[in-house]
């Protein structure tokens, strides 16, 4: 898990082996975030839930990323998957990556959009094209990345 001066990139309520903050009570921010999610009718999406969506749809734990292209943000289901021998992440790293993606989706309020996009996606799933290229499933997200948010990040996470 990546930490900086009292901050953590782990979503609220998620702990990892060796995390010394596992015994702490949820912070006031975590409590307020959970209460706001309940009031707004939005549910917190987790990395495990994203993995389960992938397993239910395609039978594999595909890698999932967020990608910013110009002013648009996309949720992408990549062609590599956890069960593949050449997959570059350990299972813990994979789940941490999905937790980070899920935290952004929850924060932006687009978790339902991603769940609907995965449900509507082809049952073939992502993979390789006949010509040897890789093909990801891209779900456009309704996220405003203009103005003050435009410099938050570029590329993919």
Automatic annotation (TrEMBL):
Domain of life: Eukaryota
Xref: InterPro entries: DUF3067 (IPR021420)
Protein's UniProt name: Uncharacterized protein
Pfam families: DUF3067
Organism of origin: [Myrmecia] bisecta
Classification lineage: Eukaryota, Viridiplantae, Chlorophyta, core chlorophytes, Trebouxiophyceae
PANTHER family according to UniProt: DUF3067 DOMAIN-CONTAINING PROTEIN (PTHR35126:SF1), SLR0598 PROTEIN (PTHR35126)
Region feature (Disordered): 1-28
């Amino acid at each position: 898990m990546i930490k900086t001066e009292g901050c953590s990139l782990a979503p609220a309520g998620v702990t990892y082996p060796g995390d010394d903050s596992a015994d702490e009570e949820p912070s006031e921010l975590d409590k307020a975030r959970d209460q706001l999610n309940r009031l707004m009718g939005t549910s917190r999406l987790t990395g495990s839930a994203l993995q389960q969506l992938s397993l239910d749809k395609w039978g594999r734990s595909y890698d999932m990323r967020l990608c910013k292209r110009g002013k648009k943000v996309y949720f992408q289901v990549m062609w590599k998957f956890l069960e593949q021998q050449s997959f570059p992440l350990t299972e813990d790293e994979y789940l941490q990556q999905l937790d980070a993606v899920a935290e952004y989706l929850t924060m932006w309020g687009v978790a339902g959009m991603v769940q609907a996009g995965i449900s509507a996606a082809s049952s073939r799933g992502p993979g390789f094209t006949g010509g040897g290229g890789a093909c990801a499933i891209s779900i456009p997200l309704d996220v405003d990345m203009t103005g003050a948010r435009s410099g938050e990040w570029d590329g993919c996470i």
